Amino acid sequence: MPTHIKRPSIIEAAGNKPKKIEEFIGRVSSGTETISIARMTSPSGWVEPGQTPDFDEYTVVLRGELHVSSESGTIVVKAGEAVLAQGGEWVQYSTPGADGAEYIAVCEPAFSPGSVHRDS
Length: 120
Fold this sequence. Notes:
Largest sheet: 9 strands, antiparallel
CATH class: Mainly Beta
Oligomer: single chain
CATH architecture: Sandwich
Radius of gyration: 14 Å
Number of helices: 1
Distance between the termini: 43 Å
Strand content: over 45%
Order of helices and strands: EEEEEEEEEH
Number of strands: 9
Helix content: under 10%
């Protein structure tokens, strides 16, 4: 039988300002280790520590702009666009725009604090 997830689990976010993470599918909300799907809502001026995760992260921006920095530079991902960050590469996410951003993040395998490897 399909599993009905009636509400997401709220996950604590890293960064300089509060960001809302609503995990619909993943280790916390459904016990799923192969993939996680979450809606992120971050305020203007939010930035998180850089990271070198063990998972691929697929991100679709719904509103605002998400800046994704890597060793190659910074990509500005606008509403209606997407970005793929490969596992094992250093990335840093931020939302410096006036309106912040709302986006869907899909991690494969599922996100876990032990697999994100944030900068000190």
